Amino acid sequence: MSDDPRASLIALTPMNPAYQYDPHSVLRPLRERCPVAHDHQAGTFIVTGYAEAHRVLANRRTYRDGAKAEAAAVLIRRQAAQLPPGVPRAEAVSILVLDDPDHARIRRPLQRAFYARVKICRPRVERVIDAALDAIDPAQPFDLMARYCVPIPVHAIAAILGVDGDNLDDFREWSEGVILGLNPFRSPEQTAVLERSRAALQVYFRAQIAERRANPSDDLISDMVALQAEGAEINDAELAINLIALLVGGNLTTTDLIGNGARQLMLNPTERDKLLAQPSLAPALVEEVLRYEGPIDITQRIMADYGEIGGCRVAATQAVTAVLRAANRDPAIYDDAEAFIIDAKRAPHLSFGGGSHICIGAPLARLEGQLALLKLFQRFPGLRMVDAEAKPRWRTLPFFRGLEELLVQA
């Protein structure tokens, strides 16, 4: 069965107060009732079961570019970039939504350089985290999000990219601005901020690319310029748009990974004590946070040809929305799915997507999450929420799950 009048993508956003407060109060009955349901209003199949979502994400015969969806897929088409005539799509949108052959052509050198950087960036990330910890006055309550979770990812990616310290304030402001592009329901005022920030980052990165070509440095931009010189088929416009995507893709989501993880460890002191007694559990901790309270709700695909998902017929150009948050707590896959247990033996979560579009930033997000959470509780082992009974202040950005504020006391 695919037609369920109660299946609504809009209901899986903060526009629905029940979902904002507890997403699983909405997702659980939807997954139990109909793991593949069609939302006529948004023009998409909503997939909440793990097996069905995994099949969608592993299918390499799908598209990511919303411009390829049928006219009825109104939401994903609204998010697809509308380009002026004559602008190649690969110079205007990143690999996050590009399809092959451009996706593979650009992703290969970018992934090669980025993964090599992540392998050697641990000391830089540790310095960023230690500086954030040193700036905290443990004698006073503080907002963990503002003081710790927000600055770490943007400062870490800035260090990897090679952003000069004098430009860090502007860089952070621009990065916050371009995050608005993730909100399909943004206001005209927010769209204006988005466009200004995106234009500023374009100018900044194009200048940095030119500078590294003349004066190479020890950073990712220099690595990419070197690969260009070796014959990598990626031009400066394509490189700039994808550097912006690395910034946006890793900034907000890693902030929320750290914030959500810290909150769960404070709510589950037994799990916190396990981590402190056995720091080698940090990688498993991050995987459980990503499964239990991951930062991203959904990812979308467009069918390239006819297929079947969970017994439902899906035609070419129809949109499919995999609800990662629901799949990651599917009791058909996970024992004690509703429990946060950092050393449980679990099936792999789906929070980084899958297939050819699996998240390119996953290695850095994992590294930052492991270090930030372990170091935070090693520095402040008694960290607790100021009011553990208070209603959490979740952000209202659709399809993302993160805290607006998290007041704590060391």
UniProtKB/TrEMBL annotation:
Q: Does the keyword DNA repair apply?
A: no
Q: Which UniProt keywords apply?
A: Heme, Iron, Metal-binding, Monooxygenase, Oxidoreductase
Q: Which InterPro entries match?
A: Cyt_P450, Cyt_P450_B, Cyt_P450_CS, Cyt_P450_sf
Keyword Glycoprotein included in the entry's annotation:
no
Per the entry, what this protein does is: Cytochromes P450 are a group of heme-thiolate monooxygenases. They oxidize a variety of structurally unrelated compounds, including steroids, fatty acids, and xenobiotics.
UniProt similarity note? Belongs to the cytochrome P450 family.
Please report the name of this protein according to its UniProt entry: Cytochrome P450
